[in-house]
Give the backbone structure.
Amino acid sequence: MRNIRAVLAVVAITAVACLSACFPSAGDIFGGGGGGSPASVSGKWSILLTSSHGSSGDVDLEANISQSTGAISATEAVILSSSPCEFGTDFIQGTVNGSNISFTLAFGTGHPTASFSGSVSSDGLSMSGTYKIPSGDCASSDSGTWAATKFGDSSASYSGPVVSAVNERTITVLAAVQEDASNNLQANVTLTNGGCSMLTLTGTAIGSVLQLENADGEIAFVAQASDPTYATLATKYQIGGTSCGLADNGTGTLSKVVPAVVGRSTASSRVNTQANPLSHSLLEKILELHD
């Protein structure tokens, strides 16, 4: 009798083990987020940090993320708005495990490092989570939430007016922009009522931002896309020297001539350099770095 019970016990244990091996767990069925192949996050990202201390602490971070399996990095990261920790030496590195993502943003030697954790959406076009920044030489400690939107190819024709802040003249801009796989930009720009009629500009796309300048660096255009379709570009320009008339600067909004129809979510409102302080600060910051 004892032998029969022992045999039955062994059979029961074997059956349970077989069932466990043959059927997926609840975590496998419903997804635990941390298993499986790492989500793909390579590309251009626009990241908004919302401080728990209020909107005055919000920061817009633009980054081009590279990925090798589960490891990510970004050396071309631009902190926007009025962040006191922008030193032009930002570096992002981290990991992706399934749909979970974690990374750090280093502001440079001797400066604090921010840490981020969160998750990637199932379609790979957005991310969100929480962040923490310790106190340091450039800011007091902070924490809050972050949300990121992925941006695609900016290649298109854009047109619209920009208005001079110097003499209030309106310049009509028509720009044909080409972006390659490495996010390098080339633009052929036609100006009506400008100091010169034709410009050839080159530059880089980082996140939602397009940075363009001429060969001698005297003319610069910086624009931020309103959404991943690049429907509109909040634009600032700066002209130095005499290569395109007198020194000048101004702002405006360019629109895509034929908006592309793509399967991406769009922002609820368009970017305007006057109404959106983050965009305004972004363009000011990049033009400052250009100087």
